[in-house]
Design a protein that fits this description.
The protein is of the alpha+beta class. The chain has one domain (about 45-215). The chain is built from five helices and nine strands, in the order ααββββββααβββα.
């Protein structure tokens, strides 16, 4: 049976060419990408402002008695006041009381948890060599288990007067007997270990710096 050449040609014309398909997909991808970028740019100021607000509130929580704060950057062996928006491993926050007397430092730290990166902020008093508060800024740990690192009040109590020397140690819940020990969260040992590891690793970077600054008698 012979195919009618006119009908055959018409059928081929109805099928879009590979070029048309690629062009259509590319155009759709471009429009979608442009829309995503537009939404991101439109919401970025709001997101940034919210993060700044959360960070500021956390600083006052992890450093009891603080009424004023300064953002500092460690450069060439000195802590210098900075207004730069960029935060990195050399950024820290100093907290002062009403008389502008240094209460302590709020130190950011981060590291891998069970699910993803955990970002924290903890208060440190150099004169006492103690962590005096800890706040989780960002975490995607498992709901009902790992999220207890910021929901479990008993776990938070560990960081109200925690000695940093010798290094902080995680112990089984209920076994804490030394001022440098932290009771683990039952069922969330990995997340508990992550918090302790982050603080210890961050302390390795900051404690010597801060002791040098304080021996020299100031931040600036």
């Amino acid at each position: 049976m012979k195919m009618n050449p006119i009908k055959s040609a018409k059928k081929n014309d109805d099928n879009p060419s590979a070029f048309k398909l690629i062009f259509t997909l590319g155009l759709a991808g471009f429009i979608s990408g442009f829309a995503i970028i537009g939404i991101y740019m439109a919401t970025l100021p709001t997101i940034t402002a919210y993060k700044v607000k959360v960070l500021r509130e956390a600083i006052f929580k992890v450093l009891p008695g603080v009424t004023q704060m300064e953002k500092l950057r460690y450069t060439n062996g000195r802590l210098e006041v900075t207004t730069a928006e960029l935060d990195d491993e050399n950024t820290i926050y100093a907290g002062y009381d009403n008389q502008k007397v240094l209460v302590g430092y709020a130190i950011p730290g981060e590291g891998p948890g069970f699910q993803d990166i955990i970002r924290i902020l903890y208060g440190y008093k150099p004169d006492q060599q103690q962590v005096v508060g800890m706040e989780v800024l960002e975490s995607r740990e498992t709901p009902g288990l790992g999220d207890k690192i910021y929901k479990d009040a008993e776990f938070q109590i560990n960081f109200l007067a925690l000695q940093v020397k010798p290094a902080i140690v995680l112990v089984k819940k209920g076994a804490k007997s030394a001022p440098n020990e932290v009771d683990a969260i039952t069922g969330a040992t990995i997340s508990s270990k992550a918090i302790v590891r982050i603080i210890n690793e961050t302390n390795e970077r900051w404690l010597e710096r801060l002791s040098t600054v304080n021996r020299e008698g100031g931040n600036q």
